[in-house]
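STRUCTURE:
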Protein backbone atom coordinates (compact mmCIF):
# COMPACT_ATOMS: atom_id res chain seq x y z
CA UNK A 1 0.00 0.00 0.00
CA UNK A 2 1.52 3.37 -0.99
CA UNK A 3 2.25 5.72 1.87
CA UNK A 4 3.45 9.30 2.14
CA UNK A 5 5.87 8.47 4.97
CA UNK A 6 9.54 8.17 3.87
CA UNK A 7 11.13 4.74 4.26
CA UNK A 8 14.66 3.35 4.43
CA UNK A 9 17.38 5.69 3.22
CA UNK A 10 14.81 8.37 2.35
CA UNK A 11 13.77 8.46 6.01
CA UNK A 12 17.36 8.89 7.15
CA UNK A 13 18.00 11.63 4.62
CA UNK A 14 14.84 13.43 5.75
CA UNK A 15 15.88 13.23 9.41
CA UNK A 16 19.38 14.50 8.59
CA UNK A 17 18.00 17.43 6.64
CA UNK A 18 15.72 18.37 9.52
CA UNK A 19 18.61 18.13 11.98
CA UNK A 20 20.63 20.39 9.73
CA UNK A 21 17.79 22.88 9.62
CA UNK A 22 17.73 22.96 13.41
CA UNK A 23 21.36 24.07 13.66
CA UNK A 24 21.71 26.11 10.47
CA UNK A 25 18.40 27.87 10.06
CA UNK A 26 19.00 31.45 8.97
CA UNK A 27 15.87 32.68 10.69
CA UNK A 28 17.02 31.46 14.10
CA UNK A 29 17.81 35.00 15.20
CA UNK A 30 14.70 36.94 16.25
CA UNK A 31 15.81 40.06 14.44
CA UNK A 32 15.81 38.20 11.13
CA UNK A 33 19.47 39.00 10.53
CA UNK A 34 20.23 35.31 10.68
CA UNK A 35 23.48 33.70 11.73
CA UNK A 36 24.88 30.27 11.12
CA UNK A 37 24.56 27.38 13.51
CA UNK A 38 23.38 27.10 17.06
CA UNK A 39 25.30 30.27 18.03
CA UNK A 40 22.59 32.30 16.34
CA UNK A 41 20.10 30.96 18.85
CA UNK A 42 22.18 32.33 21.71
CA UNK A 43 21.51 35.90 20.51
CA UNK A 44 25.11 36.93 21.05
CA UNK A 45 25.81 40.66 20.66
CA UNK A 46 27.16 41.75 17.32
CA UNK A 47 30.94 41.85 17.37
CA UNK A 48 31.21 39.18 20.09
CA UNK A 49 32.29 35.73 19.03
CA UNK A 50 33.57 32.67 20.85
CA UNK A 51 35.77 31.96 17.82
CA UNK A 52 37.46 35.34 18.15
CA UNK A 53 38.40 34.61 21.77
CA UNK A 54 39.60 31.11 20.85
CA UNK A 55 41.77 32.44 18.01
CA UNK A 56 43.29 35.05 20.33
CA UNK A 57 44.13 32.41 22.96
CA UNK A 58 45.56 30.08 20.30
CA UNK A 59 47.84 32.84 18.98
CA UNK A 60 49.07 33.48 22.52
CA UNK A 61 49.67 29.79 23.16
CA UNK A 62 51.72 29.46 19.96
CA UNK A 63 54.00 32.38 20.88
CA UNK A 64 54.43 31.40 24.56
CA UNK A 65 57.95 30.60 25.76
CA UNK A 66 58.61 27.36 27.70
CA UNK A 67 57.72 27.80 31.37
CA UNK A 68 60.77 25.78 32.43
CA UNK A 69 63.00 28.43 30.85
CA UNK A 70 60.75 31.21 32.10
CA UNK A 71 61.31 30.26 35.78
CA UNK A 72 64.87 28.88 35.49
CA UNK A 73 66.57 30.32 38.60
CA UNK A 74 70.03 29.93 37.08
CA UNK A 75 69.18 32.65 34.55
CA UNK A 76 68.32 35.31 37.12
CA UNK A 77 70.82 37.87 38.32
CA UNK A 78 70.98 41.41 39.59
CA UNK A 79 71.48 43.95 36.78
CA UNK A 80 74.83 45.76 36.94
CA UNK A 81 73.29 49.20 36.46
CA UNK A 82 70.09 51.04 35.68
CA UNK A 83 70.76 50.98 31.93
CA UNK A 84 71.09 47.21 31.85
CA UNK A 85 67.92 46.85 33.89
CA UNK A 86 66.00 48.98 31.39
CA UNK A 87 67.38 46.89 28.51
CA UNK A 88 66.28 43.69 30.24
CA UNK A 89 62.79 45.01 30.97
CA UNK A 90 62.18 46.20 27.41
CA UNK A 91 63.55 43.04 25.79
CA UNK A 92 61.98 40.57 28.22
CA UNK A 93 58.55 42.18 27.88
CA UNK A 94 58.90 41.68 24.13
CA UNK A 95 60.13 38.09 24.46
CA UNK A 96 57.79 36.86 27.21
CA UNK A 97 54.76 38.92 26.24
CA UNK A 98 52.47 35.87 26.03
CA UNK A 99 53.75 34.44 29.32
CA UNK A 100 53.07 37.74 31.06
CA UNK A 101 49.59 37.85 29.54
CA UNK A 102 48.70 34.45 31.02
CA UNK A 103 50.12 35.51 34.39
CA UNK A 104 47.88 38.58 34.30
CA UNK A 105 44.83 36.47 33.41
CA UNK A 106 45.71 34.00 36.15
CA UNK A 107 45.85 36.77 38.75
CA UNK A 108 42.45 38.05 37.61
CA UNK A 109 41.00 34.54 37.84
CA UNK A 110 42.48 34.04 41.32
CA UNK A 111 41.06 37.37 42.48
CA UNK A 112 37.58 36.49 41.21
CA UNK A 113 37.55 32.96 42.62
CA UNK A 114 38.82 34.09 46.03
CA UNK A 115 36.06 36.71 46.37
CA UNK A 116 32.48 35.31 46.47
CA UNK A 117 31.00 38.83 46.48
CA UNK A 118 32.91 39.66 43.33
CA UNK A 119 31.49 36.54 41.70
CA UNK A 120 27.99 37.70 42.65
CA UNK A 121 28.70 41.18 41.25
CA UNK A 122 29.88 39.70 37.94
CA UNK A 123 26.78 37.51 37.79
CA UNK A 124 24.58 40.58 38.36
CA UNK A 125 26.43 42.46 35.60
CA UNK A 126 26.11 39.53 33.16
CA UNK A 127 22.41 39.10 33.96
CA UNK A 128 21.69 42.82 33.58
CA UNK A 129 23.53 42.98 30.26
CA UNK A 130 21.74 39.87 28.96
CA UNK A 131 18.30 41.23 29.90
CA UNK A 132 19.06 44.63 28.34
CA UNK A 133 20.33 42.96 25.19
CA UNK A 134 17.22 40.79 24.87
CA UNK A 135 15.03 43.87 25.25
CA UNK A 136 16.98 45.60 22.51
CA UNK A 137 16.35 42.64 20.20
CA UNK A 138 12.60 42.84 20.78
CA UNK A 139 12.51 46.57 20.11
CA UNK A 140 15.12 49.28 19.75
CA UNK A 141 16.10 50.87 23.04
CA UNK A 142 16.31 54.64 22.67
CA UNK A 143 17.50 57.01 25.39
CA UNK A 144 17.67 60.78 24.81
CA UNK A 145 16.97 60.18 21.13
CA UNK A 146 19.91 57.77 20.66
CA UNK A 147 19.70 54.05 20.07
CA UNK A 148 21.65 51.97 22.57
CA UNK A 149 24.58 50.20 20.93
CA UNK A 150 26.39 47.24 22.51
CA UNK A 151 28.92 49.47 24.35
CA UNK A 152 26.01 51.58 25.63
CA UNK A 153 24.21 48.44 26.80
CA UNK A 154 27.33 47.30 28.66
CA UNK A 155 27.64 50.73 30.28
CA UNK A 156 24.01 50.60 31.37
CA UNK A 157 24.49 47.09 32.80
CA UNK A 158 27.58 48.36 34.63
CA UNK A 159 25.59 51.25 36.11
CA UNK A 160 22.87 48.85 37.29
CA UNK A 161 25.40 46.50 38.93
CA UNK A 162 27.65 49.29 40.28
CA UNK A 163 26.29 49.12 43.86
CA UNK A 164 27.03 45.38 43.98
CA UNK A 165 30.56 45.94 42.69
CA UNK A 166 31.04 48.63 45.34
CA UNK A 167 29.90 46.25 48.08
CA UNK A 168 32.21 43.56 46.68
CA UNK A 169 35.22 45.89 46.89
CA UNK A 170 35.86 45.76 43.15
CA UNK A 171 38.07 48.85 43.30
CA UNK A 172 40.42 47.22 45.78
CA UNK A 173 40.47 44.05 43.67
CA UNK A 174 41.46 46.01 40.56
CA UNK A 175 44.32 47.75 42.37
CA UNK A 176 45.45 44.42 43.85
CA UNK A 177 45.55 42.79 40.41
CA UNK A 178 47.43 45.73 38.88
CA UNK A 179 49.89 45.90 41.77
CA UNK A 180 50.54 42.15 41.78
CA UNK A 181 50.94 42.15 37.99
CA UNK A 182 53.44 45.02 38.01
CA UNK A 183 55.41 43.41 40.84
CA UNK A 184 55.59 39.90 39.33
CA UNK A 185 56.18 40.96 35.73
CA UNK A 186 58.47 43.86 36.64
CA UNK A 187 60.63 41.68 38.90
CA UNK A 188 60.91 38.92 36.31
CA UNK A 189 61.69 41.30 33.45
CA UNK A 190 64.33 43.16 35.47
CA UNK A 191 66.18 40.13 36.88
CA UNK A 192 65.82 37.65 34.00
CA UNK A 193 69.09 37.58 32.05
CA UNK A 194 68.91 38.01 28.29
CA UNK A 195 69.89 35.09 26.10
CA UNK A 196 73.03 35.39 23.99
CA UNK A 197 71.05 35.69 20.76
CA UNK A 198 68.85 38.36 22.32
CA UNK A 199 71.92 40.34 23.42
CA UNK A 200 73.38 40.19 19.90
CA UNK A 201 70.09 41.34 18.42
CA UNK A 202 69.95 44.18 20.95
CA UNK A 203 73.51 45.30 20.10
CA UNK A 204 72.75 45.22 16.36
CA UNK A 205 69.72 47.50 16.70
CA UNK A 206 70.42 51.02 15.37
CA UNK A 207 70.72 53.70 18.01
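SEQUENCE:
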Amino acid sequence: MPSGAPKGENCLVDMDSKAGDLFNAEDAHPTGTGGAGIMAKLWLPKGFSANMAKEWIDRRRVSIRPWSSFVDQRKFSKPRNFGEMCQRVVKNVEIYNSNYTFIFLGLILYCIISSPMLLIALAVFAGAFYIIHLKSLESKLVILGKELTVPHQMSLAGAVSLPVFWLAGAGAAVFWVLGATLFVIGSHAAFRELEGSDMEELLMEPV
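REMARK: The CA atoms of residues 152 and 158 lie 10 Å apart.
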